[in-house]
Amino acid sequence: MTLMTEPKKTAALGDEYSIVKARHPGRWLSAAVILFLGLLLARSVVTNPNFGWETVGMYIRDVSIVRGIGITLELTAICMLIGIVLGVVLAVMRISANPVVRTAAFAYVNFFRGTPVLVQLLFWYNLAALYPSITFGIPGVDLDANAIITPLTAAILGLGLNQAAYMSEIVRAGILSVEHGQSEAAGALGINRLQTMRRIILPQAMRVIIPPTGNETIGMLKTTALVSVISVPELLYSAQVIYARNFETIPLLMVASIWYIVVTSILSVGQFYLERHYAKGGQRSLPPTPWQQLKRFVRVHDPLTGKGARK
Any stretches that span the bilayer, and where are they (predicted)? Predict the structure, then answer.
């Protein structure tokens, strides 16, 4: 005689399951400690009268400060454009089969990376002491160096040519990251080297080139503060002119710092989404946006989307 057992109840096909995350009290404890220390620091900064927050509020939107921000952004854009364009040319020269071209590019990069950018700025600013007249080797051409090399021109030449040396190494690394078989296949199809570089190699190298280029752009924005030594009225120089009159040094430096942080934060957001765009096709999943990271941080249950779970 066989005993009939009642069949076990199985979960309905449409039942929803969830995965409960493991608890990590150490993470919450460390976050609480860091938050507490951050609040203490913020309270100290806000309540310290030596920062002169009233003066900061008075000059944060001053006309000369806003004009200085515009010149800072203009210098950043122009110098990065020069650096990127010339950097691509130098990178191609560095990997050229011609030893003379390759050596010339190496000498350029070695010179501009081997000398401080502040020294280069001072050399360009005092170029008239070396060459009072500029002829470019063309008969009949005689230009006054003092009239051509203005403080703004010296700043653009100094920062742009220096940036080209660093960008050339970034672009060269991106080009070398692409498999050599790509150029060999293009050559087998009868595509010349210039078209291969422009249409095949560089688009694939962008995933490697974009992240450090974004960092270099943010670095260039802050490096423009060096041109204050040659009297270019950018953000820091504008703040220096004001505190030379009213002797409010710390508040005006705080004004400049706040604007630098604001602009670099905006550039950082743009860099993140640009990197995310060029990451398509190269990663299984795109890096999460800040909003997606916040939602993942506060979420306790992860929905199970496998078989038997409701999507």
Answer: 28-46, 66-93, 105-125, 145-162, 250-274
Pairing state of beta strands 143-144 and 133-134?
A: antiparallel
Strand, helix or coil at 310?
coil
Nearest residue to 251 via CA among 5, 44, 23, 45: 45
What is the number of other CB atoms lying within 10 angstroms of the CB of residue 90? 23
Domains in the chain (CATH in brackets) are: 64-281 (1.10.3720.10)
Residue at 151: amino acid letter:
P
**pLDDT of 275-285, one tens digit each?**
777 766 555 56
Tell me what pLDDT residue 148 has.
Answer: 87
Determine contact, residues 152/233, Cβ cutoff 8 Å.
Answer: no
- In eight-state DSSP terms, residue 201 is I
In contact, 163 and 172? CB cutoff 8 Å: no
Which residue blocks in the chain are alpha helix, DSSP H? 25-47, 53-59, 63-94, 99-114, 117-125, 127-130, 145-148, 151-177, 180-188, 193-196, 202-223, 235-246, 249-278, 290-298
Tokens representing residue 21 in the block: 């995350």
CB 132 within 8 A of CB 149: no
